[in-house]
Amino acid sequence: MRKVGLLGGTFDPPHIGHLLVAEEVFQALGLDEVWFVPSHDPPHKEASNTNVEHRVEMTQLAIKSNPHFSVSAIEMERSGISYTYDTVNELIQQFEDTVFYFIIGGDQVEYLPKWHRIDELLELVTFVGVKRRGHELKTPYPIEKVDIPMFEVSSTLVRDRFKFGGSTKYLLPEGVESYIKEHNLYE
């Protein structure tokens, strides 16, 4: 059985923090791969203003130097709200020889009781929680915990830096930074 980590998010834009989390979980759990899953329309926050094609392309640029990372466009191929239950259920049907681990930050660990069909989802996937400042990994649900080096960056911070002319050096992979500038995103 293959072991695959799933890292979902809007990736608007993908940044070094996303890559760090994916690599640390990959190593800690001995995964075969980590798939980045850009969400189409996330249920827990406002939809992204950046179109889907840009977010997928930026994510592909962000991961291109890592052979055990890939992008799954499964949620892009569906319209409507991107519920994790639907995504995982579809992946399990497509990849019967695979065990999936869904990687989430501490903020989402606390939010798990509100997730769509959480009890059924827990039968399909193992959740992996990573710490985020200001959040504990406390939940009534079973999760694997992975300690990662703290790196405080967010997509909101990156977008604000572009909007107000600040530096994004060392916050983004160079290819993503170039792509954003080339397409005048976040101005």
Automatic annotation (TrEMBL):
<comment type="similarity">
    <text>Belongs to the NadD family.</text>
</comment>
<dbReference type="Pfam" id="PF01467">
    <property type="entry name" value="CTP_transf_like"/>
</dbReference>
<keyword id="KW-0808">Transferase</keyword>
<keyword id="KW-0520">NAD</keyword>
<dbReference type="GO" id="GO:0005524">
    <property type="term" value="F:ATP binding"/>
</dbReference>
<dbReference type="GO" id="GO:0004515">
    <property type="term" value="F:nicotinate-nucleotide adenylyltransferase activity"/>
</dbReference>
<protein>
    <recommendedName>
        <fullName>Probable nicotinate-nucleotide adenylyltransferase</fullName>
        <ecNumber>2.7.7.18</ecNumber>
    </recommendedName>
</protein>
<comment type="function">
    <text>Catalyzes the reversible adenylation of nicotinate mononucleotide (NaMN) to nicotinic acid adenine dinucleotide (NaAD).</text>
</comment>
<dbReference type="InterPro" id="IPR005248">
    <property type="entry name" value="NadD/NMNAT"/>
</dbReference>
<keyword id="KW-0662">Pyridine nucleotide biosynthesis</keyword>
<comment type="pathway">
    <text>Cofactor biosynthesis; NAD(+) biosynthesis; deamido-NAD(+) from nicotinate D-ribonucleotide: step 1/1.</text>
</comment>
<dbReference type="InterPro" id="IPR004821">
    <property type="entry name" value="Cyt_trans-like"/>
</dbReference>
<keyword id="KW-0547">Nucleotide-binding</keyword>
<dbReference type="GO" id="GO:0009435">
    <property type="term" value="P:NAD+ biosynthetic process"/>
</dbReference>
<feature type="domain" description="Cytidyltransferase-like">
    <location>
        <begin position="6"/>
        <end position="161"/>
    </location>
</feature>
<keyword id="KW-0548">Nucleotidyltransferase</keyword>
<keyword id="KW-0067">ATP-binding</keyword>
<dbReference type="InterPro" id="IPR014729">
    <property type="entry name" value="Rossmann-like_a/b/a_fold"/>
</dbReference>
